[in-house]
Every structure is written in C-alpha cells, then in structure tokens.
Predict the structure.
Amino acid sequence: MRSQPQPKTADLDLAAVLHALGDPVRLELVRLMAAGGEVPCSPPHMDVPRSTLSNHWRILREAGLTSTRAEGKARFMSLRRDDLEERFPGVLTSILASTTPPPVDDRNGA
Amino acid sequence: MRSQPQPKTADLDLAAVLHALGDPVRLELVRLMAAGGEVPCSPPHMDVPRSTLSNHWRILREAGLTSTRAEGKARFMSLRRDDLEERFPGVLTSILASTTPPPVDDRNGA
C-alpha cells in the first residue's frame, strides 16, 4: 500500500491545523473521531461524496490532525489528540467543546 | 463612510472563525491585536502589501473576529475577544497561547 505521510509532532503548524479545522465537513469528521475513535473514509451518516471526503481526509492528515490505519483496502482515521495537545495545549479540546453535535434522528440507524 | 458589517455574536460560526485564523498572516494580525489592542490597517513591521492586508482584514471582520473603528480615513481594528469567548469558550485564548511571537529585533523601532 502507499504510505500515508503525516507531519511529526514538532512540525505541526498552527495556521495549517486551524485551516484544516476551518471547514464544516472537516470539523464534523474531527468531531466524529473525537466521539468514536476510529472513523472509516465514508462515515455512514455523512451525505458527502466519497471523492470530496477523500480530499478532506487528505487535508486533515497533511495538517497533522489524523493518523491512518489500513485494514485491507479500508482506511480508518483517528485523531492525533495527544500530539496536538502536546504542541498546542487546549486548542483542539476547546474547539471540540464548541462543536455542536447534530440533532439526534434516525440517520444513526444506518 | 461605508459601514463595516460584522456578524452578531450569536451568528458567529466556528468553522468560519477557524478558517479566518487558518492563515499565518491573519494569525499574526490577531496576535498583534491581542498584544496591543487596536491595530492600524498596515501595522508598521508587517512586510505584506496593503491590498493583501486589506483582504485579510475583511476575512477577519466577516468571520466576526474584529471590530473596526474609523478615525477620519484611518481604520483601527480590535479583537472581539469577549464575543468570541462567550460563543466559543477557550478557543481564541488557547490559540493565542500557542502562537509564538516573532524574535525580538529592531523592527519594532519603526
């Protein structure tokens, strides 16, 4: 498989991290990872084309927000919470606390 | 003078705020305002074209990060810290704590 390059913790750049978080879809992906640990490329209740999601995941990974685990052809992403907390204390935590989860409906039944 | 529209506190959007902060120049403008209160359109030690700065200021204002005060033809921008703290507790504070001030040199003598 191709490697999934991600920046080292010391190389994390605050502006790049904030840029990656500065999009509603990417913010939702980050919220999902924070709530559920690993998240697949196409989370079941997100109505966003797979190719668009793929681009969002790339931006998140290149900014240093995610780690990628491969399982066969599938990819599972998780938040680099410890790395981000070490480099930018409180930033991700306060952002996550300010994100509002979507209203509960039957989409989670998928 | 033209009005300088800015969103109400209740209308501040987290993704828009993070997008506005997700640029090195805008992050530096925010850091300057946090350190010095009001900042003019073209801060003396920033080597960025005035038209580029003007665009950055617009993005910051439209995302709800700044208030603008007019004095004759001059404009002075300040951070809407209280509004942002009310809407997204800890977010701006932790981001500012993670920004590194530029090395001390003779640029501040200008």
Observations:
- Helices of chain B lie at 14-21, 24-36, 50-62, 81-87, 91-98.
- The CA atoms of residues 15 and 63 of chain B lie 9 Å apart.
